[in-house]
């Protein structure tokens, strides 16, 4: 029996952002354990597989991580080809590392397949390059989720000179603003708040660090959403400001806009 | 005439990490402008297209960016479907933002297609999760390339609490070490140096912040390579150290290892 579990990133939502390797894993799957945030449309690549929903949406009823672990182990020990399908990338806020380690300790071989992470896809769809020569020499992806008790130094991040992309930050906007201001990030720093990144119903709200809490409220911003904080997120309508022009370009494919 | 340029991420090297959308763009292409670091194997998806190599490898003879701009514009104005194929992702150190802006100013529609960035793929192939609950609550991608004169505060990045992934850092190892130590990053912080990320001839060298310069020299580390700096990059052979176990898991698919 070839016990094996694929830990596969399904990308941000747009089913065309699946990789060829993810498609191959799905086509070989006997069992697919699928997260809440994965677009069901990708299941066209595994018509014969048994599909099990194991969502863990923040604040809602959800499947405990330990149960997901045991499910993967049980099917793998039955010799089934198991695909654990996650939103985005399995190693960027996806617990892919944890699951691979847990399975590895029990003798189960795993293979990780990268996916496009939501922060990148959402920004691209809003015509925001996360890095831009002369403007942003790097990008930092962080989660605001409270279940991770590892330390994050927001005040240092405010000073790093990278574009900041925050996942799961909708409920933490006030704290994020307070910490970044305390780190001397300018109050007028541009912010883009992007709901349902890369999906047809993606929505974006452009704001600033100082105004983002009130603007998100007026916009009725809902999870899942990502925040892009930095000069590259400048509002396209501010094109007359030369300092912001670097961030601007036109794309064919943008979600509904809100300035 | 439907003038359009696709700015497409070809991923890190492994041709299976191409997205379905990239495959579609290639299949529609009349002309493909291909960067140095893109694996030629992906050209199987555009058998009828004219292929033009426009590499810009650091330190070598290369195609000026202005010439690439004009080539794209010329073919687009001829009504050709143009694909500009870049390593990794077009908006992460890929100049996708610049090219889209330049073309947009000339009335050419562009569409960006995300790709898997080399830092992510290389780390995954080395069984390093870039984020890990309780260990690394985020990841920072930066380039050490000197052509970007935008400011980067290494000392702040040293204190941010994220995994640090450095692109194009091989020639800058001494400076990077100096800056991060000055930012109070511990000398024993684990470092993985990954050459030819995600390709069959990927090589990895595990070290520490203090020892990385000498270890890279002994290993004969060459570009292209990425550095992963942080607790998640701990050497698997140090599994007896409980502080490092979080970073460890087994994967089916790792490149040749060097501890």
Automatic annotation (TrEMBL), chains A, B:
Its EC number is 2.1.1.107. Pathway: Porphyrin-containing compound metabolism; siroheme biosynthesis; precorrin-2 from uroporphyrinogen III: step 1/1; Cofactor biosynthesis; adenosylcobalamin biosynthesis; precorrin-2 from uroporphyrinogen III: step 1/1. Keywords: Methyltransferase, Porphyrin biosynthesis, S-adenosyl-L-methionine, Transferase. Residues 4-209 form the Tetrapyrrole methylase domain. It is an enzyme of class 2 (transferase). GO terms for molecular function: uroporphyrin-III C-methyltransferase activity. One of its GO terms (biological process) is methylation. InterPro entries: 4pyrrol_Mease, 4pyrrol_Methylase_sf, 4pyrrole_Mease_sub1, 4pyrrole_Mease_sub2, CobA/CysG_C, Siro_Cobalamin_biosynth, Uropor_MeTrfase_CS. Belongs to the precorrin methyltransferase family. This is uroporphyrinogen-III C-methyltransferase. It comes from Pseudomonas vancouverensis. The lineage of its organism: Bacteria, Pseudomonadati, Pseudomonadota, Gammaproteobacteria, Pseudomonadales.
